[in-house]
Amino acid sequence: MPLNFPHKHISPAKLNLRLKITGLESGGYHNLSMVNVTANLSDEITAKSILAGAPKLTELSFGSTVNPAQIPKLSQSLSDPEINLALRAAKLFEERFSLDAGIEFSLRKNIPAGGGLGGGSSNAASILKILSAHHVERLAAKYSDEELFHELCAIGLKLGADVPYAIRGGACIVKGVGQTIIPCSKTFQRIVDGTQVFIALPDTPTGTKEAYQKFGSQNTWLKTETRADSWIEEVENMNTETGVLKSLSGLCENDFEAIISDLNPEVASAIEQVRNLGIGTVNLTGSGSSFAILPFPALDFSHSEQIAIKNAFLSLKINYFDGRIQLYYE
Prior knowledge:
By secondary structure, the protein is α+β, with helices and mostly antiparallel strands. The chain is built from 13 helices and eleven strands. Helices cover about 40% and strands about 25% of the residues. Helix 2 packs parallel to helix 3 and helix 11 crosses helix 12. About 40% of the residues are buried.
């Protein structure tokens, strides 16, 4: 049956536990090797109606995790149907399926822009899932669940490499330009789901395009080589609790961290200072500027560790989110 309105949907933030660049596609896109999870830092979308006509963002608000100085620029970009990924997703849905996608919705942003947390991609995935649920009867007559997922992912890839993963959710290995998504083992999912995490939210965003360009200029092997990521095969075979717990710390790595030293020295300095606490694992997510502090190989921080991390953020004057890995699934 079609959705009842208003319909609320959560758009969770993405965290890269691992991000390695393994090569280049002929079209210039980078091949990636990632392990992604979602966190309970999330945007909130409320669909009010779905009619014929252009999709419309009717109301926009911001939570305390968004830097007030960024709000004017963010408000302007999110109001632009050519920039807002959620509005673009609705238009592409209508073009692909010839179904009404004139969705009217409100959006509360809690995920800062330009932080590598995939907020825009998550919003786009939410709109695609809301529209699919609304038109479920007509879509089910033409597609199996898996076929529909692949159709939505094809739309998502036109918007960004993180959108297909955001449609699937959970803890996943993501390869290529975002099109290959392999759910991690049930054991891996069970262990990491609910793990405590501090997400640092620096004020200065990092430009994704600029980060990739910088990586390419510093790693000329990209023009001639493809490099395997041996860790991914290990993650695919993580089926025991002991194996997962032993591997979590070593798994966390991000190829963009060295780039951040040049592009965003303040973020690099903050990562170094938090890492010097010697608590858990500190890991950049996406191309930054956000980074996660995880208790790996433990799954929770002690009380004294939590105080030390919070004091570090206070001294660095960095906003943060104290939350959990929460594996939202489709």
